[in-house]
TrEMBL record:
Pfam families: YibE_F
Extent of Pro residues compositional bias: 1-18
PANTHER family named among the record's database cross-references: MEMBRANE PROTEIN, MEMBRANE PROTEIN-RELATED
Keyword annotations: Membrane, Transmembrane, Transmembrane helix
Biased composition (Polar residues): 114-129
Membrane keyword on record: yes
UniProt source species: Streptomyces fungicidicus
InterPro entries: YibE_F
Protein name, per record: YibE/F family protein
Biased composition (Low complexity): 443-460
Length: 472
């Protein structure tokens, strides 16, 4: 090798005196390797911003039109049935609890007969031989505030009352005076509020400003659900259309609020939108094919009884779409960020190379996310699965029952949408960043990095870090 030939790539960096080349903050060749996660994404060209805006602006406009057309203006009124959640409730406090013989308070007062090995026989025996409790409860809210009533607690009841305990009582005005109030549940407002406060503090402590934005987005999501999605469905609007419009609004607000208005966020929005459409199509096909009615328990039966016009199978599909949205956001944002960082690390990589590298990251994400989703649904249906296990039913019989089939369809459709979101979002992100026009970019980190590395690629004219200065 002659002295005038350039050294093999990459050339060793010559030693620099302190402060040389650092005046503008771009002299360090690795100075950007630690800034991707803390600063905004490198800006893309004006051309790409126009392309993305041409897709997302009509979509956002359609969502706003859908919200305006379907906006319900409140849930429709109905006459209370006094069943389940559809009854008047007040808050109360247990002021006194005394023990007494169950024989003295039970109406029958006779000795139970029959097989005590059964649940009914065992319960009757406990009520006859056990010790009951008489609780005095004081109503703390409502027009009867300060009123007290007594309630008998049987020994086999799962919820036992204690003095000073806060409870929720149901009020039935048409019942006799001594039977108008009854304990229905425990007042859990304080522990739930405390847990929510701990959650908010943890999010803000770890996420800082991003955590605050995430909490704001979470609050807006609940507002959209409570003031748009649920009342619109109750008023008879198509549950699928309402769910798509509501989920799209939540997606736009949450992603842009948490991650900022950038091309990276816009690609995540597009990937989420395509995956939601796939989930909607698959859900519509298989819920109809499997003849799932969506009316499988007391709560859905009560809803159907109060509002017969509601499409319960559409309500099931709406639940699948909204339930999948949160995990979809996580997957699409992660994949988009991964592709963006890969491009920042090596801007010369083409879209195929970016896609292959991004999809390798996505495979690990798929394995963990799908398992999470399946276990979440299985955990929610655990008492039902335990019941089938007690009955010693076969796997086929359990899976064929509508209660379990509904959860299977919900899980598999959501999982298919999650799996599909990885290649879709990765391909979109790879195409966007690789199609960017470097000459049209706003000078940013990429341009600064190229400017910082340019002197290192030139053949050195003299030895030492001050060759050019000595030459002059």
């Amino acid at each position: 090798m002659t002295p005038t030939q350039p050294p093999p790539f990459p050339p060793p960096e010559p030693p620099r005196p302190p402060g040389a080349g650092d005046g503008g903050g771009h002299g360090h060749p690795h100075g950007h390797g630690h800034s991707h996660a803390h600063g905004p994404a490198a800006p893309v060209s004006q051309h790409l911003r126009k392309v993305i805006a041409a897709i997302l602006i009509p979509f956002a406009a359609a969502v706003l039109i859908g919200l305006a057309v379907l906006w319900p203006g409140g849930a429709p009124a109905h006459e209370r049935t006094g069943v389940g959640f559809d009854r008047q409730t007040q808050h109360a406090t247990v002021t006194k609890v005394v023990e007494l013989s169950c024989q003295s308070v039970n109406a029958s007062g006779g000795v139970p007969t029959g097989d005590t090995s059964t649940a009914e026989g065992s319960s009757a025996q406990q009520q006859a031989d056990g010790t009951c409790k008489k609780a005095t409860i004081r109503v703390d809210t409502g027009k009867d505030k300060g009123r007290t009533f007594d309630e008998i607690v049987q020994p086999d009841q799962s919820r036992q009352l204690s003095e000073g305990q806060k409870v929720v009582v149901a009020y039935e005005p048409s019942a006799p005076d001594d039977l108008q109030y009854s304990v229905t549940d425990v007042d859990r407002r304080f522990p739930l509020a405390l847990l929510a406060g701990i959650f908010a503090l943890a999010v803000v402590a770890v996420g800082r400003l991003r955590g605050v934005m995430a909490l704001v987005a979470l609050a807006i999501s609940f507002l959209v659900l409570n003031f748009f999605v649920l009342p619109a469905i109750l008023q008879g609007s198509n549950p699928l259309v309402v769910a798509v419009v509501g989920a799209s609004a939540i997606m736009l607000i949450a992603l842009y609020l948490c991650h900022g208005p950038s091309a990276r966020t816009s690609v995540a929005v597009l990937g989420t939108l395509i995956s939601l459409l796939l989930i909607g199509v698959l859900g519509s096909v298989f819920i109809g094919w499997a003849a799932l009615t969506g009316n499988t328990d007391d709560n859905t039966g009560l809803i159907h009884g109060l509002y017969p016009g509601i499409d319960m199978s559409g309500l099931l599909l709406a639940g699948v779409i909204i339930g999948s949205l949160g995990v979809l956001d996580d997957v699409t944002v992660t994949q988009t960020s991964a592709v963006w960082e890969l491009h920042e690390a090596n801007p010369s990589t083409g879209w195929r190379g970016l896609y292959r590298a991004g999809i390798r990251i996505g495979r690990d994400h798929i394995a963990s996310v799908v398992n999470t989703l399946v276990l979440a649904y299985a955990g929610a249906a655990l008492p039902l699965l335990l019941l089938f296990s007690i009955a010693q039913s076969s796997v086929g019989t359990v899976a064929n029952s509508e209660l379990v089939a509904e959860e299977i369809v919900r899980t598999l459709i959501g999982s298919i949408g999650l799996v599909a979101s990885v290649p879709v979002t990765t391909a979109l992100a790879a195409l966007v960043v690789s199609a960017d026009r470097p000459s049209a970019r706003t000078p940013g980190r990429a341009g600064a990095q190229e400017a910082a590395q340019a002197p290192e690629a030139r053949p050195p004219t003299m030895r030492g870090g001050r060759g050019r200065r000595r030459k002059r």
